[in-house]
Amino acid sequence: MVTVGATALPAAWLASAHGFDLRWLEIWICEAVVAVSLALVAIQSKAARRGLPWTSGPGRKVALNLVPPVAAAALLTIPLFRANLESLLPGTWMLLYGVGVITGGAFSVAVVPVMGICFMVAGAAALLAPTLGNWAMAASFGGLHILFGIWIARRYGG
Fold first, then answer.
1. In this predicted structure, what is the pLDDT of residue 88?
2. Do residues 101 and 115 make contact, with C-beta atoms less than 8 angstroms apart?
């Protein structure tokens, strides 16, 4: 999670040079692909160290709870962008990611749903103050992943 969070910070910096235009969207979509790829590698690595398939038991439950809200966020991106409501994307993404983390986190350590709540709070703030959306994403997708990643690694061994 720390590495995933670390990739969001330069993405936010790059995206900040663009309003909520197509280049901004492309930067954040690329960041999402990088983040998901890193997360999958980390999950696979952790499962392999424990001698388990990553698609078994808790891994499958987390995925089944995380994927639907993330897919909804991805699908909502298209009509919101087409309707020139792209400033609502950060809040929408953070809210729905938070929902997925809360529900998926029910099959993980207790602090994971707390991280999901933090994402939802950041998403709500971004919807109330859309001009801060890019920086709210830096704080959440970057900062929250780093902070909670360190917390989970120290407290629960990763």
1. 97
2. yes
Q: According to the model, what pLDDT value does residue 64 have?
A: 87
Contact criterion met (CB below 8 Å) for 90 and 98: no
Rg (CA), the chain: 15
User: pLDDT confidence of 158, banded at 50, 70, 90?
Assistant: low
Taking the model in full, what pTM does it have? 0.92
Q: What share of the chain is helix, strand, coil (3-state, %, to 5)?
A: 85, 0, 15
CA–CA dist 147, 126 (Å, integer): 20
Q: How many CA atoms lie within 13 A of 92 on its CB side?
A: 17
Tokens standing for residue 130:
């859309």
Residue 61: half-sphere exposure toward Cβ, Cα within 13 Å: 9
- Residue 143's pLDDT is 97
149-157, long-range: CB within 8 Å, 24+ apart, which pairs? 149/1, 149/2, 149/3, 149/4, 149/5, 150/2, 151/111, 152/1, 152/109, 152/111, 152/112, 153/2, 155/109, 155/111, 156/109, 156/111
AA identity, residue 146: I
